[in-house]
Amino acid sequence: MDQSRIYSVRMRASENELHKNGGRHISGGELLSSYSELGLSVNTLLEKALHHSRGKPDFLQIQCEMVNQPIKLLNPLTVQTNDVTAVKEGHELAKSLLEKTGVPKDIIKKAYKEIPEYPVRGAILIDIHTGKRVDGRIDKGVRVSKMDWQTRNFKKWAKSKAVSPNQRLKEALILATKVCNHQLTIAELCWSDDPDYITGYVASEKIGYQRITQLKQYGDDRGCRIFFVDTFSDIHTYINYLEEQPILVQWGEEHDTRVD
Ligand code: WAQ
Ligand code: MG
């Protein structure tokens, strides 16, 4: 990518946006693009918004913005796939993995109870000491953006790790790698809100990106994305990192330093 003029491109699409505050989230997307590929990049996100299993949008927005900060290069988290035979088994595994990362058992229990209350288009931030939601973005959550992984490097990585190079894994692994690279992140728990996708994951710097093949039933359009964080004393700097720090995932390079 020509690093001299990089743009952050973001898309969000929803239903009933004009009638109800916020509307129903359909899809979102974020990537980094060179100036010369901006047309292609906008089109990639437009296609994603127009052909989505959650429905047709009646509100759609694509925004391009030049990135001024230097881009940080990160190695992808290690990936492991855990096959489970039932959703219940998937959640038992997810909970035990979260415990392994250092999230206390009672906080995991509390978070699970509150998951149905979070129909947002971003992520929910939960403090691991209090179990309280600390992002303050009640209807929206926090949307992580300014991140990408160049196709050629991603394909090389996928081939070497013998994983199928699917777009969804790519997007989720970019996000998890960015989020887990920050010291305040203890773990992430996620499954899609797309009714046709049931694999989810638990991720952390310590355990890597642990895919779990069933975290919901087919047809279910309720998703989840929770970042368990260590403190909310400097939550604004943390949110600023998630939203503003440009990140490029790049496999095979020695760039993996954590943010303090
Ligand atoms: N920042 C914050 N939250 C986000 C972002 C983002 N950039 N993108 C999505 N979310 C939240 C939002 O609330 C969505 O409703 C929810 O996550 C699910 O998003 O095979 O596809 O894009 O290894 O539907 C994981 C497994 C797939 C991939 C996750 O999530 C694999 C997925 P989706
Ligand atoms: Mg989705």
Structure, explained:
With 260 residues, this protein is of the alpha/beta class. The chain has two domains: 6-68, no CATH class; 73-249, no CATH class. The protein has six helices and twelve strands. It has helices spanning 38-50, 87-101, 105-114, 151-161, 167-180, 235-244, and strands spanning 6-15, 24-34, 59-66, 72-74, 79-82, 124-127, 147-149, 185-191, 200-204, 208-212, 224-229, 247-249. The strands form three sheets. Strands 5-10-9-8-11-6 form a six-stranded mixed sheet, sandwiched between helices. Strand 8 and strand 9 (200-204) form a beta hairpin. The longest helix has 15 residues, at 87-101. The radius of gyration is 18 Å and the shape is globular. 38% of the residues are buried. Magnesium ion is lined by residues 27, 192-194, 223.
Task: Please summarize what this structure is.
This protein has 6 helices and 12 strands.
- Rounded to the nearest angstrom, the distance between the terminal CA atoms is 27 Å
Could you tell me the number of beta strands?
12
Relative strand content = 25-35%
Q: Name the average pLDDT.
A: 93
Count of individual helical segments: 6
Domain count, please report it: 2
Biggest sheet features: 6 strands, mixed
Rough outline: globular
Radius of gyration: 18 Å
Sheet with most strands: strand arrangement:
5-10-9-8-11-6
Helix content: 25-40%
Order of helices and strands: EEHEEEHHEEHHEEEEHE
